[in-house]
Amino acid sequence: VRIADLAPAIQLDPQEENGVLGEAIRSGRVQYISADLRDNAQVVKAFQGAEVVFHMAAPDSSINNYQLQNSVNVQGTKNVIDACVDNGVKRLIYTSSPSVVFDGVHSILNGSESMAYPSKHNDSYSATKAEGEALIMKANGSNGLLTCCIRPSSIFGPGDRLLVPSLVDAARAGKSKFIIGDGNNLYDFTYVENVAHAHVCAERALASGGDVSAKAAGQAYFITNMEPIKFWEFMSQLLEGLG
Fold first, then answer.
1. Which of 23, 169, 195, 243 is most buried (most C-beta within 10 Å)?
2. What is the mean predicted confidence (pLDDT) over 185-190?
3. SS (H, E, C) the chain
C-alpha cells in the first residue's frame, strides 16, 4: 500500500500512531511518498506498479479560490487519470462530493444519482469537483481502466479536522445564535468508517467482474448514514456533548 500526499512527510496524531496505520507504516506494509498531483511526472512515478488508486485529494471546501480548486480538482485529476492509463492501473475510485449536484439555492430531498449537474454551482469547490468527477467517469474504459465515484456527505468521526472543528469555531464566534428559516432543514452526515467502507465496496465492485462491475463502472454514488437529521438538531447535540 502506498500513500501519496503533498506533505514532505506523513504526520500521524497519537491515535493514528498507535493504530492500524501507524503499525502498518512501521512494519513496511505502507509506504509514504511525497508528491504533488499537479505535477504529472510526480504522479506517474507515485503510481508505478499500482493496480488500484483511490483519489481522495482536494483543497478544503471552504476555500473559495477558483485557481487553487481548479489546479487540484481538475488539472490534478487529469494527471491522476493520465498516470493511471500510462501505468496500466486497473481500478480508480474518486472521492467526490454531493455538492456537485447542488446549486446552493434549491434544497435536495431524496435526490438520486440520476440528478444532472446544475448550470451554476454555489462555489469554486463544487464546480471543480463536478468537473473532476465528470473526467473520472469519462475515463472509464481507457486502457482497461475501470472508474467509480463516491459522494460522501459531511464526514465526521475520529480524526476529523474539518467538519466538527469548523462548527465549534462558528458557535464560539456566535454564528449559531441565529437560525434563518424554520430550522427544520434536513442534512446528511456520514460517519468516517462508512466512508472508508464505501471506498472498499466500490473497489470490490469494480474488481468483481460480470454484471456488478459493469453496473458500478463509470458511475457515481451518494454515500450517507441513511439517517438524515435536522441540521440544528445535530448542532444542538454536538454542542451539548462538547459541553
1. 195
2. 91
3. CEEEECCCCCCCCHHHHCCHHHHHHHHCCCEEEECCCCCHHHHHHHCCCCCEEEECCCCCCCCCCHHHHHHHHHHHHHHHHHHHHHHCCCEEEEECCHHHHCCCCCCCCCCCCCCCCCCCCCCHHHHHHHHHHHHHHHCCCHHHCEEEEEEECCEECCCCCCHHHHHHHHHHCCCCCCCCCCCCCEECCEEHHHHHHHHHHHHHHHHHCHHHHHHHCCEEEEECCCCCEEHHHHHHHHHHHCC
